[in-house]
Design brief:
The protein has about 325 residues and is an alpha/beta fold. It has nine helices and 16 strands. Helix 9 links the parallel strand 15 and strand 16. The mean pLDDT is about 95.
Length: about 325
């Protein structure tokens, strides 16, 4: 019997359990590619799954982890062969399909993206779903015509995973970045990533006016709720905001005023079911448009045995930047 180490979430009458266990390979789910997982990462969604604070996991038992990077071990998919280096983000990994906190994964070949030639598996997971989502948001703003010359871009939840990568990406692309954070002590960190200005989260947490003073040309929001409502009310005429998170809540207490009086666009960013062509473009852009020395500086490394404790910390908002998980 072949087994491997995995972080498994299960559900009992007494509640959710999480542990590092020996998992039987025969219990892997269907898929046409088997991957030897080398690295994973810790995202906010992983923290929610590991702590049970939100109903992320849809089947039990579940190997946690919404990301993985590694090497194809075997493949029945024409597009992949043994030895190929791959990245996988989303597609229900760690939610409906056994995930990346394991030494082995069996997945659909159509879900995989080839690891960029200039990027290591560890670097890919330092970026992870958080960074890939940030890139999708930047690309959405570009498609909406929000160029650097239009004015500053606000990034909310800026010290978190999505926010940190978004700040670094936007700064390298020439945007003036306003970073919003609930942790003022992280101002030096955010300016080191390229933020031109750092504001406190409390400026965006009160009830939103239908229209506020026009302050930015666009935004990337990972918080939701009143924060997003305030960002929209202060977006300049013809601006756009990419929404990709709900750390502050799923509600949106706003009015139609920003949309019909200032022509503001609210763009939804989905990283889980994102089409393959867009994923490939995002990873191509990440390989060229992201200063990986800044990513390295914001990244901490843990082992598989440390994931459960780290998941508690990220769920409590106590993690800055990115955490990579060494699987092998």
């Amino acid at each position: 019997m072949a087994t491997f180490k995995a972080i498994v979430i299960d559900k009992t009458p007494a509640g959710q359990t999480v542990g590092l266990v020996d998992f039987d390979e025969r219990n892997l789910m269907e898929g046409d590619v088997t991957v030897r997982v080398e690295w994973s990462t810790l995202n906010y969604k992983d923290g929610l799954a590991l702590t049970g604070k939100a109903p992320v996991v849809r089947r039990f038992p579940m190997i946690a982890g919404i990301d993985l990077a590694g090497t194809v071990e075997s493949s029945a998919c024409p597009g992949w062969k043994a030895g190929d280096k791959v990245v996988l983000n989303g597609w229900g990994l760690g939610e409906t399909h056994l995930g990346g906190y394991a030494q082995k994964a069996r997945v659909k070949g159509d879900w995989l993206v080839r690891l960029p030639a200039t990027m290591s598996a560890r670097e890919a997971m330092a970026i992870g779903t958080a960074g890939y989502t940030a890139m999708l948001a930047v690309m959405a703003l570009e498609r909406a015509g929000i160029a650097p010359a239009r004015g500053p871009i606000i990034v909310t939840g800026a010290a978190g995973g999505v926010g940190s990568v978004a700040v670094a990406l936007l700064a390298k692309l020439g945007y003036a970045v306003i970073a919003s954070t609930g942790r003022p002590a992280e101002a030096a960190y955010l300016k080191g990533l390229g933020a031109a200005e750092v504001i406190e989260r409390k400026e965006l947490t009160g009830p939103a006016r239908p229209l506020g003073k026009e302050r930015w040309a666009g935004g990337i929001d990972a918080v939701g709720s009143t924060t997003l409502a305030n960002v929209l009310s202060m977006t300049r005429y013809g601006g756009a905001v990419a929404a990709c998170g709900l750390a502050g809540g799923m509600d949106l207490p706003t009015s139609v005023a920003p949309f019909i009086l200032r022509g503001v666009s609210l763009i939804g960013i989905d990283s889980v079911m994102c089409p393959l062509a867009l994923r490939q473009e995002a990873w191509r852009r990440l390989a060229t448009d992201l200063d990986r020395t800044k990513i390295a500086a914001m990244t901490a490394e843990i082992g598989l045995a440390d994931v459960i404790e780290a998941g508690t910390r990220i769920g409590a908002g106590a993690v800055r930047g990115r955490i990579v998980v060494k699987i092998g």
